[in-house]
Specification:
Layout: E1 62-65, H1 67-73, H2 81-94, E2 98-102, H3 108-120, E3 128-134, H4 137-147, E4 153-160, H5 163-170, H6 174-193, E5 202-209, H7 216-229, E6 238-244, H8 251-264, E7 271-277, H9 284-293, E8 298-301, H10 315-323, H11 336-347, H12 368-388, H13 425-436, H14 445-459, H15 465-477, E9 483-492, E10 498-506, E11 509-517, H16 520-530, E12 535-546, E13 555-565, E14 568-576, H17 579-595
Parallel strand pairs: 1-8, 2-3, 3-4, 4-5, 5-6, 6-7, 7-8
Antiparallel strand pairs: 9-10, 10-11, 12-13, 13-14
Helix pairs in contact: 2-11, 3-4, 4-6, 6-7, 8-9, 12-13, 13-14, 13-15, 16-17
């Protein structure tokens, strides 16, 4: 039956038929050229159904960084020995226990680096290097020459196995590829047997490259054959590594593939099941996490996801995703900026500012609603910690928009809230409090926010904390106006009342005035009334804090006053080591702003 495409325009939420692609006219992209995964590989559902959807990750898998091999192959300028050594030392410090260190048969540089590790004694007792080799006798021999003298190592054998590789690249059928793999694996075993102690310090790994496009029964046949040939056992297991060499489907499909192998491998207790996801569809992290749910025990990847095309799966994101779920990641990213600096130096590639956990902007909020929520969340966190007698850095974390405490990865709170034209009163208030010791009264914050927004709207750029303080100082502290207080003093009467004596200029009039009141502020207001200014203090607040550097860093009082003057209302502020002086200056600033 032939269906004629509809020429009518359907409602965008209703089912509709797209017109067939026609190369003679502009229109839809030629999607018909590509086949869905189910037409390229059969993915059997394990007998009894899937178990991975209901599984949980409760402990970290074995993380294996491949930056020094797979990641290095993707660099425009491959690492030399000094850069590789710096990267290796970083991986050791972070706590990785198995590290792929190179492809010694591929280049003199890689061979020399493996020999450098041997001769320099750089490999700690609890770290196992991994070396990579194709399934060719001469390249295997070269690889064994490289690892000679290492106290322990994994020799990683690979061969592409999918139909497109067998037919287009290798020119072999299934039997031909199987024979090549077994011949190479047997040669590895013979080389190991000839070593002192029968090569007991070596373990073997096999990757059926392009696993995710290979027939599942063929993968099992190859892997089980090598498990037997290498005589794997629980105390000397073989690693079978299943790469998503190029992503072909949604992550659930990869999970089904991994679970099928996991549940059907022979000698399962003698096999470490590993995965090596790439990121062609942008789902490398999801593929790795679902693969672990499906039975994978080991994950290969790179720091920050470097690798061919769109990269290998990012081990930093994977580890910190576990951390954010309350699971020990078994690696230490408590100084993420130092890690990033080393990786950027060695790879000569930048880490994107939006990269999960590590980018410059990932803990930053510009939006006013986000800033307000974060500011309130940080305040609530500090209160909860104080109420329970727990150090803030150890207290349970629950702050809006921040999945983990930035301090846990070595970030300060300085970059959490930054202000631009999209920001609101909460963000402005937070930065002034954090960087200038200014705790603006709530009623004052909208006005200050409007002041900032006028500036950032005009410039189109971010306002730094220093610039915010300067805006505050200019708008509320350094206020010129028609009222000038030349000299003043406050006296406490025997009755308890206060008497404010001042020399005051208002417009073109100058004179001495006195006022009385219950306190200094009310006495000052009374003196202003004598000068013809009807002033009402609508709101007043003050606090002590350390002043910013330009004021010497001493502890000062900041006072805030909202005043109505002859019908006009304005805020003012004062800052001084004397609380009395700060209060008087705040009222004076408010009066001048209103009078203007």
């Amino acid at each position: 039956m032939t269906t004629t495409p509809s020429t009518t325009t359907a409602h965008p939420t209703a089912p509709y038929e797209r017109p067939l692609w026609n190369p003679q006219r502009p229109g839809p992209m030629p999607y018909h050229r590509y086949r869905p995964f189910q037409e390229r590989v059969r993915v059997p559902v394990p007998a009894g159904g899937r178990t991975w959807p209901s599984a949980r990750i409760e402990r970290a898998p074995l993380w294996v960084p491949v930056d020094l091999r797979d990641g290095n192959q993707a660099l425009a300028e491959p690492m030399d020995t000094p850069r590789k050594r710096r990267f290796f030392d970083l991986l050791v410090r972070l706590g990785f226990k198995e590290i792929e260190v190179g492809y010694p048969s591929a280049s003199r540089t890689d061979f020399d680096f493996v020999r450098h590790l041997v001769t320099s004694g750089a490999v700690p007792d609890d770290v196992t290097p991994v070396v990579f080799t194709p399934a060719r006798r001469d390249l295997i021999d070269r690889t064994f020459e490289a690892v000679a003298g290492l106290p322990r190592a994994v020799v990683h054998l690979y061969m592409a196995t999918s139909p497109v590789w067998r037919e287009v690249v290798l020119g072999r059928d299934r039997d031909g590829v199987r024979a090549s793999v077994r011949e190479a694996a047997a040669h590895m075993a013979r080389r190991a047997d000839a070593l002192p102690g029968g090569g007991a310090h070596l373990r073997f790994q096999f990757s059926p490259e392009t696993f995710n496009l290979t027939e599942p029964d063929y993968v099992l046949e190859l892997c089980d054959g090598l498990t037997e040939l290498w005589d794997a056992s629980p105390d000397r297991p073989v690693t079978h590594n299943l790469p998503a060499t190029v992503e072909i489907a949604t992550p659930n499909v990869y999970a089904d593939q991994i679970e099928y192998v996991h549940r059907n491998l022979s000698r399962r207790d003698a096999v470490i099941l590993s995965v090596h996801p790439h990121n062609d569809r942008g789902t490398g992290v999801a593929c790795a996490e679902l693969a672990v749910l499906a039975g994978a025990q080991r994950v290969e990847g790179c720091l920050f996801g470097n690798g061919e095309r769109t990269g290998n799966v990012d081990l930093v994101t994977l580890a910190l995703n576990l951390y954010a779920q309350g699971v020990d990641p078994m690696v230490d990213f408590s100084d993420i900026d130092a890690v990033r600096a080393t990786v950027e130096h060695c790879n000569r590639l930048p880490v994107h500012p939006r990269h999960p956990y590590a980018g410059d902007l990932v803990h930053t909020a510009f939006s006013g609603t986000h800033q307000d929520a974060i500011s309130k969340g940080l305040d609530a966190h500090a209160r909860r910690a104080a109420e329970t007698g727990t150090a803030p850095e150890l207290a349970p974390w629950s702050v809006p928009y921040l999945p983990i405490d930035p301090a846990d990865v070595g970030r300060s709170y300085e970059a959490v809230i930054r202000v631009n034209s999209q920001s609101g009163k909460g963000g402005v208030a937070y930065l002034l409090r954090a960087h200038a010791g200014l705790d603006l009264p709530r009623r004052m914050r909208p006005e200050m926010s409007r002041t900032v927004q006028e500036t950032t709207d005009g410039s189109g750029r971010e306002a730094t904390p220093k610039e915010l303080y300067e805006l505050f100082r200019t708008a509320y502290l350094a206020v010129d106006g028609p009222v000038r207080l030349d000299a003043w003093s406050v006296h406490r009467e025997p009755s308890g009342a206060h008497r404010f004596v001042c020399s005051l200029a208002y417009g073109d009039r100058t004179g001495d005035h006195e006022g009385t009141g219950d306190g200094p502020v009310s006495a000052f207001v009374d003196a202003l009334a004598g000068a013809g200014l009807a002033v009402a203090v609508l709101d007043f607040a003050e606090h002590r804090s350390a002043a910013p550097g330009e004021e010497g860093g001493a502890e000062v009082t900041t006072a805030y006053a909202e005043c109505r003057v002859n019908g006009a209302t304005a805020w003012g502020a004062g800052r001084d080591t004397s609380s009395l002086t700060a209060a008087v200056h705040a009222v004076l600033a408010a009066v001048n702003r209103a009078a203007r």
